[in-house]
Amino acid sequence: MKRTLLGLAATVIAAAAAAVPATLMATPASATTASAATTGDFGPDTCLQGYVWREARPSDLVCVTPATRTQTAADNSVKASRWTSGPFGPHTCVNGYVWREAFVGDDVCVLPWVRSQALADNAKAADRKVLARLWITRYTVPPHDNGDGTSTSTSVDDIPRLKLNGDHYNFGQVKLYIRYTTGRLYWSGSVNASAHAGYAGGSFGKKTDVFDCAAPGRPANGYAQAYDILSGRWSARVPVRVGCAVL
């Protein structure tokens, strides 16, 4: 078994995306302006391309299609005309309408299909946001089969290497970086995030060919990070140890 000079560890490092600084986050007061944009980093509530905030109320940041957002605004604008006094109080819906229930206490009266749409959108809310999740797995390079009954290997084939994985990105290019904690770049690359069963939004798995230098008692000396091109969202920094000599 070959080793790095610093040793190896087989543990898996994982991380979920962290919130970006508050200066990058859209607040309810800026919701109308922010949701009109199809790109841009509005913090953990950033919608995937093609979706906008619903805004059934100012703090409603569920990501929906532009058509649903338009329908929501239209229903809000005529809500008083659809209320009547009845068994559910002064906001009882007139015949043919039901409460939308996009959020707890939402008593805007809408057609039944609109309420069904609101419930469906709520169920998919997390899957439509650029959460920019990033985690690390490890892989080894198997011996190369020469096709004649022999194989070729090198002295480092059994040393784990780092694979960067992610989901909840926009479809398209994602930039990947491994840096030392000082900020100095160690490795960079890019990957095309696309649809994969079991993962929300655009997802990917990128083999970096970078050796994992983790070892007991050896703290991380760097981090991996991903950048979603369309939104400008960064993933959380995932700790790694890199740069060791390999024999």
Helix content, binned percent: 10-25%
* Estimated radius of gyration: 25 Å
Sheet/helix structural class: mainly beta
Calculate the mean pLDDT score and round it. 85
Biggest sheet architecture = 4 strands, antiparallel
Placed side by side, the strands forming the largest sheet appear as 1-8-11-14
- State the total count of DSSP E strands: 16
Strand content: 25-35%
Helical stretch count?
A: 3
Distance between the termini: 11 Å
Gross morphology is elongated
Topology as H/E string?
A: EHEEHEEEEHEEEEEEEEE
The residue ranges in which pLDDT falls below 50 over 5 or more consecutive positions are 1-37
Which features does this protein show?
four-stranded antiparallel sheet; 3 helices; disordered N terminus; 247 residues; elongated; mainly beta
Fold blueprint:
Elements lengths: L13 E2 L15 H5 L16 E2 L9 E2 L1 H12 L5 E4 L2 E5 L4 E2 L9 E2 L1 H12 L9 E7 L4 E2 L5 E2 L8 E9 L2 E9 L4 E9 L8 E10 L10 E7 L9 E3 L7
Antiparallel strand pairs: 1-8, 2-3, 4-5, 6-7, 8-11, 9-10, 11-14, 12-13, 12-15, 15-16
Structure description:
The chain has 247 residues and is mostly beta strands. Helices cover 12% and strands 31% of the residues. It contains three helices and 16 strands. The protein has helices at 31-35, 66-77, 112-123; strands at 14-15, 52-53, 63-64, 83-86, 89-93, 98-99, 109-110, 133-139, 144-145, 151-152, 161-169, 172-180, 185-193, 202-211, 222-228, 238-240. It has a four-stranded antiparallel beta sheet with strand order 1-8-11-14, with no helix packed on it.
